[in-house]
Design brief:
Distance between the termini: 32 Å
Order of helices and strands: HHHHH
Number of strands: 0
Bound molecules: MU-OXO-diiron
CATH superfamily: Ferritin, core subunit, four-helix bundle
Helix content: over 70%
Number of helices: 5
Length: about 160
């Protein structure tokens, strides 16, 4: 059985994962609007992953006999200054999520909630991967700058994303 403090924190994390899904879907819409279909696809996959993250916690709360209480999701940003800015914002977002997962883990330790600690270990590993992936995209973008041909090739590369 989940205690109330951990349950509230997990519900908050569900809200944040849903917010992340919303932000990435908005970034995908932005890329569609500027005709970068590969970047749009990459962000759409990223958004789908965030829905999976939210559902992982959703299922965990239910499996523990807790009560999922969904909350309002803030509107995402819709306009961006450049392709690079979008990915930099995505990285900042992931770094914030990493901090939230770490806080949640600390809470689970304080509350001696061992199953929550085990569940969160998956998220701790996942955050390493998430930050690495977005960081790599940023490094590549910095290398190519805003040149048309290179950006076109970069966009085609991102179109190949399946999972991660
Ligand atoms: Fe659910 Fe990308 O963190």
């Amino acid at each position: 059985m989940l205690n109330q403090t951990v349950q509230d924190a997990l519900n908050k994390q569900i809200q944040y994962e849903q917010h992340a899904a919303h932000v990435y879907l908005s970034m995908s819409a932005y890329f569609e609007a500027i005709n970068l279909a590969g970047c749009a696809h990459w962000m759409r996959k990223q958004s789908e992953e965030e829905v999976e993250h939210a559902m992982k916690i959703f299922d965990f709360v239910n499996d523990r006999g807790g009560r999922v209480q969904l909350q309002a999701i803030d509107a995402p940003p819709t306009e961006f200054a450049s392709v690079l800015e979008v990915f930099e914002k995505a990285l900042a977002h992931e770094q914030k999520v990493t901090g939230l997962i770490n806080q949640l883990y600390e809470l689970a330790i304080q509350e001696k909630d061992y199953p929550t600690q085990v569940m969160l270990q998956w998220f701790i590993d996942e955050q390493v991967e998430e930050e690495k992936n977005v960081g790599q995209v940023i490094e590549q973008l910095k290398m190519i700058g805003t040149q048309g041909t290179a950006l076109y090739m970069f966009d085609r590369q991102l179109a190949a994303r399946k999972e991660d």
